[in-house]
TrEMBL record:
This is Cupin domain-containing protein. It comes from Streptomyces coacervatus. Residues 1-20 are annotated as: Disordered. InterPro entries: RmlC-like_jellyroll (IPR014710), RmlC_Cupin_sf (IPR011051). It comes from the Bacteria.
Amino acid sequence: MPKVSRDTATEGGDYGPVVDRSEEFDDYTVDFLTFREDIDHRPLLKGLPDDRCQCPHWGYVFKGELTFHYADHDETYQSGDAFYAPPGHVPVHTEPGSEYLQISPKDELRKTSEVIMKNFESMRPPGA
């Protein structure tokens, strides 16, 4: 049976405000995420349907707090919370120092990640 830890994950990287250590298993991606800064993902999700993440995620918060905005409400997840984030969410707050595990369908996550990285690169100052 496959397994992974934050230390053994072979994919992802250090993107400055966030460190993403990940591994793919069959149809799913396991991400260990650490946020160094509070990030509002609204500008990063521009170009996705409704400018919202369309990928579902199952997760567990090890440390800190994160808030996802939905069309009709917000959900805040804190240390010790397991969560399910259905399609149509936007992460709008991540407490600096937050650490969480996220499991997502890999093909849907890949589509979302491509848009996020394109937007992230366009927001970086030249030479950074």
